Amino acid sequence: APTAAVVRQLGVRLVQNEGRTKLRGGAAQDGAALICSHYKFALGWAFDEHKDAPAVLVVEDDFYFSPDFLEYFEANAPLLDRDASTFVLSAWNDNGFWGKVRDRGALHRTEYFPGLGWLLTRRLWDELRPKWPKAHWDHFLRDPKQHKGRESVYPEVPRTFHNGKKGTFMDLGTHKKYFADIAYNTDATFRWPHRPPSYAQAAQEVYEPRLAARLRAAPAPAGGLDGWDALPGSSGADAALWYRVDKATPR
């Protein structure tokens, strides 16, 4: 495989999962089960092999990486130990499209697990390993029964770009719609501050009051989206669009 060839070329130790699972679903169902099984194998091997490692950084073979990808994790990983309300640290923003993000140093929080380059602590792995699912590991991590209200921390400007266009759940149309216009950081001069630490902005006791204040101060368009263009203000100003979720309607 191309990935294995690159690993060998770089002289890095290669560990392959040669286990086989008997499946009877269709292509997508089988793929989901195999992917999930492989994640459990890879994460289990990494933590068992490196018994002193406090965390594992999970990446995929179809990423482009920002110049500060590793620095991002080094600078912000301490938050996972200091704030019990955090879940994982991710390099990805699902809404990080061109024209929608601007602050390279901003961090945000979400209950919706982002993935696509993320740091998993040994403490959380010990919690999840005994109940790891048979399929769809990412949806498993988004289940409130698993995250228990803990939130993932992610950058406003993504630090990875998903370049894969063909896979179990990926095709060219999906890539163009959700991934092609992601504005990941390419500025090699950007540095994460350490004094004060950059992760402090995402601590729950700092982040929640600041977000609430911004929402209170932000104008809301009359008539919802129809009134959006009538809002005063300059480019980059805050605006709030409020909506009500009908819990009786399937989502």
Automatic annotation (TrEMBL):
SUPFAM superfamilies listed in its UniProt record: Nucleotide-diphospho-sugar transferases
EC number(s) per entry: 2.4.1.101
Transmembrane segments: none
Main location class: Golgi
Membrane protein topology class: Single-pass type II membrane protein
Coiled coil regions, renumbered to chain: none
Top-rank taxon: Eukaryota
Alphabetically ordered keywords of this record: Glycosyltransferase, Golgi apparatus, Manganese, Membrane, Metal-binding, Signal-anchor, Transferase, Transmembrane, Transmembrane helix
Catalytic activity: N(4)-(alpha-D-Man-(1->3)-[alpha-D-Man-(1->3)-[alpha-D-Man-(1->6)]-alpha-D-Man-(1->6)]-beta-D-Man-(1->4)-beta-D-GlcNAc-(1->4)-beta-D-GlcNAc)-L-asparaginyl-[protein] (N-glucan mannose isomer 5A1,2) + UDP-N-acetyl-alpha-D-glucosamine = N(4)-{beta-D-GlcNAc-(1->2)-alpha-D-Man-(1->3)-[alpha-D-Man-(1->3)-[alpha-D-Man-(1->6)]-alpha-D-Man-(1->6)]-beta-D-Man-(1->4)-beta-D-GlcNAc-(1->4)-beta-D-GlcNAc}-L-asparaginyl-[protein] + UDP + H(+)
Enzyme class: transferase
Cofactor (UniProt): Mn(2+)
Family listed: Belongs to the glycosyltransferase 13 family.
Protein's name in the database: alpha-1,3-mannosyl-glycoprotein 2-beta-N-acetylglucosaminyltransferase
Source organism per UniProt: Heterosigma akashiwo
